[in-house]
Amino acid sequence: MFFFISKLRAKIINLLCRGNFFSLMVRTLKHIVWIGCFLGFSAITFTSQAKPTFWQSLTSPIDGLSESIGGYSNGCIIGAKPLNNNSEHYQILRMQNNRYYGHPELIRYIEDFTNRVNMKSLGWVLIGDMSMPGGGRFDSGHASHQSGLDVDIWLQLPKSPWHEEKLKHPTPLSLVNDDNRTIIKEKWQKSIYDLIKIAASDERVARIFVNPAIKKQLCIDATLFGENDRTWLRNVRPWHYHQYHMHIRLNCPVGEPDCQNQAPIPAGDGCGNELESWFNPKEKSTNENQTDDKQNKTPAIPERCELIRQHFSE
Ligand SMILES: [Zn+2]
User: Fold this and answer.
1) Ligand 1 center from residue 143 Cα (angstroms)
2) What positions belong to coiled-coil segments (predicted)?
3) What separation in Å is there between the alpha carbon of 171 and the centre of ligand 1?
């Protein structure tokens, strides 16, 4: 920029000395337009990069008795615990993002769930994002995962543990065709069905979000396998994306009055008309909010989370 300005100044002096004033005006105008474009472009580039939230600056959990505050898509967590990274049953993906914290209830759930998966010799469970150390809002990506009760589990079950570099930069494996209506038959395996069933067969679970095509396949397979008990299927809810991971959400832990549960799930296994409506955009149900979707407006954060934010911002 300095170079450009000094060059411009030299040009002005040069033109003035030659007395070509009209030419000077035209050229100056051109340069003003050019500078305007440059500044405008810089402003656009700058503002398009979302500013990290306060919650992303927290590097360790907030001291105190563990407690989830607020809702899944607007909350925070006190006394979160990191998931143990030394397990024989699971591996944590992208640890460099520092999103492996959760309520102790979630930590226990993950340990129990992955233990059951291991007992069936299904493979290594890959743990995706949980919450940041204090929970709270992300600047991009997730809208939920804010109160320490959500975890993404990838729909891949490697038979041997991944090496460090692969864990840092894992490749997602979509199980859904580009039409977003059917699963990719060659990639769908009984072990993935079992993985989702084990995850959903736990009373701590509030909901598990999967792509509608995956839910549909689970419904088909449950019938095929002659499942007598389909109650677990009810917990598995169709939602946008989620073609390479399932999103597990736990109920609020007992005795935490500031933790907000979602509305109860409608009755039934969710395999009928409600699921079909997802394949017909005009009818699509939109009442199950609070997932990974970007929300249009940002609500005010719960008072106790705001007090924490102010305390650390002082
Ligand atoms: Zn998620």
Assistant:
1) 9
2) none
3) 16
The protein residues having their C-beta less than 5 angstroms from ligand 1 (an ion) are 152, 247, 292
Integer Cα distance of 26 and 77 in angstroms = 61
Q: Which residue has the tokens 């233990």?
A: 115
Contact 310, 83 (CB under 8 A): no
CA of 151 relative to ligand 1 center, distance in Å: 6
Q: b/e map of 189-199 (b: 16 or more CB within 10 Å)?
A: eebbbebbbbb
Report CA(224)–ligand 1 centroid distance (Å): 29
Spatial separation of the C-alpha atoms in residues 285 and 164, rounded to whole Å: 41
3-state secondary structure 152-195: EEECCCCCCCCCHHHHHCCCCCCCECCCCCCECCCCCCHHHHHH
